[in-house]
Design a protein that fits this description.
Layout: H1 14-26, H2 31-50
Helix pairs in contact: 1-2
Amino acid sequence: MRPLKQKVSITLDENVINEIKDLAENSERSFSQYINMVLKIHLKKKQEKELPQ
């Protein structure tokens, strides 16, 4: 079963929106799928930096 998703509303700069739209289209993802992917990658990298070495 896929994890549940929740709708949110955010305000972004126009240039950011345009860039994400282009990147999403080039990777054959929707705008929200692309943002979700980018945020997951960011959070994973953040967690890896916080792990004791």
